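I am writing to request your help with a piece of structural work I have in hand. I am sending you one protein, given as its amino acid sequence and as whole-number tokens for its backbone shapes. Kindly check, if you would, that the fold set down in the tokens agrees with what the sequence suggests. You will find the record immediately after this paragraph:
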Amino acid sequence: MRNRYAMRGIIFVVLILMAVLLVQSSRLDKRIAAADQQISELDSQTKSEEKRTDEIKDLQDYMQSDEYKEQVARDKLGMVKDGEIIFKESDGN
């Protein structure tokens, strides 16, 4: 009789422990899924930033080129090459 109560007690404790483990396992699965999603988003952001870095590098290279310097000299400073003729529109008066 005493053995039966002890066995039932042990079985009850084991069942409680299993239930607790199942609940904890479910919570961990949700946390893992959330972490995986965050990793995916961060990977996407990393790729976007790498692309942006490449675009900035290309712009930097262009801004150091003679072509850019010539464009700025023409547009901002109104400079022309030797022998070039500049035509300007009249005001219409």
